[in-house]
Design goal:
The chain has 317 residues and is α+β, with helices and mostly antiparallel strands. The protein has helices at 3-13, 53-71, 114-131, 146-166, 173-188, 191-196, 233-243, 252-262, 270-288, 299-314, and strands at 19-23, 30-36, 39-46, 88-89, 95-100, 199-202, 211-214, 217-221, 228-231, 245-246, 249-250. It has ten helices and eleven strands. The radius of gyration is 21 Å and the shape is globular.
């Protein structure tokens, strides 16, 4: 931790750093668990290589929304603002924030139980209910037009086909198959599919490593940095691929458990689940189908890539 952050924590927040332990941070960001007296905090410094002034404004807005829904009972870290702002900017342009340190364990498709995924469904439903109460004007991503979403997917596909033509025989075979496999899906998609889906503010990074559990229940949803206006079903599809997809199959029992939990706040049908998986493919295919991710990519990224490939293969089902 930078000395100026440590000094400012005491001056601005009254937090005396008795112990600082680095924790796993997001891409280019840094995090520390700080002990001060009997309390534990999470201090997060944001990378200015990743966040320019516009992105910092969007980040502030996203975290303000986190503060609002936390007050309404959604299980997420408590943020300690400074003079009403989440982000604290120092004279040297260092940007950081302070929040409560949440305890719990991460789970995955191998370790999660039906009771835990039912709890996750309930927490997701409550989160969506509270986010739906917030105004959307000015929120990143608003509004959404189905025609534009479809056009962007076709562009990603056509760009991939151009790469295949330009570097014939030099790209990974898996990448070639992944690009070619998109065409049949795109020919079936229409703008109406996107226009009819529920829209609103979602978490937008509702993956296994952003959910903490203790015993049979969720203790916290973390990392609201990317929350924005979008397709609400994406959070659902992302959660199900993270927790219910195992050994090339979807665990129907775990999906039903998630649906039971979510339905405490809003009905969720089998058709909704199909839409959730399809919109997850639509949103994440441009993220994970790139040549570099088919040769020596990190295990976590390979999992995301393989989930998209499975959805491509099983789309008709």
């Amino acid at each position: 931790m930078k000395p100026n952050i440590k000094k400012d924590l005491e001056k601005s927040y009254g937090i005396i750093c008795e112990e600082m332990i680095p924790t796993v941070g997001g891409w280019l960001n840094q995090k520390w668990r700080v002990k001060s007296g009997e309390n534990f905090y999470l201090v997060k410094e944001f990378s200015l290589k990743r966040y320019d002034s516009r992105k910092l404004l969007e980040l502030e807005a996203a975290l303000q929304r986190q503060m609002i829904i936390e007050k309404e009972g959604v299980l997420c870290p408590h943020i300690f603002p400074y003079r009403g702002n989440v982000l604290r900017t120092l004279e040297d342009q260092t940007v950081y924030m302070v929040m409560s340190f949440c305890t719990g364990n991460v789970k995955n498709s191998e370790t999660i139980t039906k009771q835990q995924i039912r709890s996750l469904g309930a927490v997701c439903g409550q989160m969506h209910k509270e986010l739906a109460r917030l105004p959307v004007d000015g929120v990143k991503g608003y509004p959404i037009k189905g025609e534009q979403v479809l056009e962007s997917l076709w562009k990603h596909y056509k760009d991939g086909m151009k790469k295949l033509a330009a570097e014939e025989g030099h790209l990974p075979e898996g990448y070639q198959e992944a690009v070619i496999g998109q065409e049949a899906i795109l020919k079936k998609l229409t703008a109406d599919f996107f226009d009819r889906l529920p829209k609103g503010i979602g978490h937008e990074d509702f993956a296994w490593d952003n959910i903490l559990f203790h015993n049979d229940r969720v203790t916290a949803i973390v990392d609201f940095d990317r929350n924005q206006y979008g397709f609400m079903r994406h959070d659902i599809g992302r959660a199900l691929m993270s927790f219910a997809w195992k050994d090339g199959m979807l665990d129907i029992g775990k999906i039903q458990a998630f649906m039971e939990g979510y339905s405490e706040y809003e009905p969720l049908t089998a058709e909704d689940i199909k839409d959730a998986l399809k919109i997850t493919w639509c949103i994440e295919t441009p993220w994970w189908i790139h040549p570099a991710l088919f040769k020596g990519a990190a295990e976590k990224v390979v999992r995301f890539r393989d989930e998209v490939l499975w959805l491509t293969e099983h789309w008709p089902e």
